[in-house]
Amino acid sequence: MNVSVRRAGDRGSLLELPDNAAAVRAARLLRKERPDLVDVVIGHTTVLVTWVEEVSDLQAIAERALVDEPGPCGRLVEIPVTYDGPDLDEVARLTGLSPEEVVARHTGVGHLAAFLGFQPGFAYLTGGDARLHVPRREVPRTRVPGGTVAIAGPYAGVYPRDSPGGWRLLGSTTAVMFDAAREPPALLAPGDRVRFVAA
Amino acid sequence: MTRIEVVRAGLLTTVQDRGRRGLAHLGVPPSGAADPVAYELGNRLVGNPPGAAALEATLDGPTLRFDRPTAVALTGARMPEVRIVDVLDVGRCVGGVRTYICIRGGVDVEPVLGSRSTDLLTGLGPAPLGAGDVLEVGPEPADELPAEPVPGRVLPDVPVLRIVPGPRDDWFTAAALHTLCVEPWRVSSSSNRVGIRLEGPPLERARHDELLSEGLVTGALQVPASGRPILLMQDHPTTGGYPVIAVVRSDDLWLAGQLAPQQRVRFAIDG
């Protein structure tokens, strides 16, 4: 298997990898070996890199991520959730489960932080129970409160701050997903394992 | 220290510097001046160190009262109605939409993640200026006011932005890239520092499956389901699931930062 490289303007490249785990490993290698890169952004199965002065050997470095031993696993982060979200009953109806079963399935499996985006500290979490893969709302809400725990398609996530949003809202957490004054500012990094716990 | 009272905020005036570089992996947009050429020039003209924070006015500039004589440079879009009588009244912008108000010493607001820039997408940094706000100015820089010749600059009526195709040009028909380069696109009125919406014929997709979310660069021409491209500006989200047909060259981004609503713009493949 290869890493394919696509141009992303005159100061960037998009590297395509076979899966998210390889993208996480490739991003770590690229950061370590090319500290002069401006941004190294993990996508679902991609890594976007940007530079000021063009950097060579990106493909060769990323390809080592395909054969390297899996790196150290990310941390395990527990997120306490009060399951009182406005869409809990709707998700139960869509999935043919009871609200209690929805909560049991959401807390029952570990999730993986695949990549960040949308808002600072918003991690797209994969690996959730397949029965809970529900479509986004037809009409997004104009305001979802910060700390809301939500699902959509194959993803789960926590809104870091008040923002518009089209996901299905299951509950809320007191965990602080992003704090610009904290180091690191984002609670979750790609590769972290996440478990939701009923509070 | 100099203090500035905001008498009138103008249409949209934000604090901008070089932005938050290298934090896209946290979901933090780059932010920073939308016309970096004008911003850097203004800072040089008042002897500021690179990266000092300035005010970015949009279409209709603010009215500011300084509590002592201060060196100020206005760069970017021209301001035919600017007045300085007790207060600095910037007035409306012509020949572009953004004017930079660079004050000797720089605007001294609390930096967030290494930058004083307002980020309209995520709310990081200071809020846009409001009437009655008081801004502090930073300490006098060591450099004297330079005698730099100021290059004249005229924005063409229909600017041509050079693009590099990709990263997802193969998700579109061959005709789509051709259409992108031959059509004069119109800038939608619902454009802002997050993105410039372009009106014209839809760009046709060759692939209709869903793209998994991937990283985005400033200048990307992202094509949502409508087929009408959105040119991503400094406050753009860091990842997205719509394919990017081409990216504007970094040297031409300042032109995008001066595009006015209803103005026309063209794209040309370069590289």
Q: Can you put this structure into words, describing what you see?
A:
The complex is a heterodimer of chains A (199) and B (271). Chain A is α+β, with helices and mostly antiparallel strands and 199 residues long. Chain A folds into two domains: 4-67, Gyrase A, domain 2; 76-198, Cyclophilin-like (Cyclophilin, Beta Barrel), CATH 2.40.100. Chain A has four helices and 13 strands. In chain A, α1 (20-33) crosses α2. Chain A is elongated, with a radius of gyration of 18 Å. The N and C termini of chain A lie far apart (44 Å). The mean pLDDT of chain A is 94. In chain B, a hairpin with a 1-residue loop joins β6 and β7. Chain B folds into two domains: 3-136, no CATH class; 160-269, Beta Barrel (Cyclophilin). The mean pLDDT of chain B is 96. Chain B has helices at 36-45, 174-182, 253-256, and strands at 3-8, 12-16, 54-58, 63-66, 72-78, 83-85, 87-89, 94-103, 134-136, 160-165, 185-187, 195-199, 214-215, 220-222, 230-232, 239-240, 244-248, 264-269. At the A-B interface, β3 and β4 of A face β13, β16 and β17 of B.
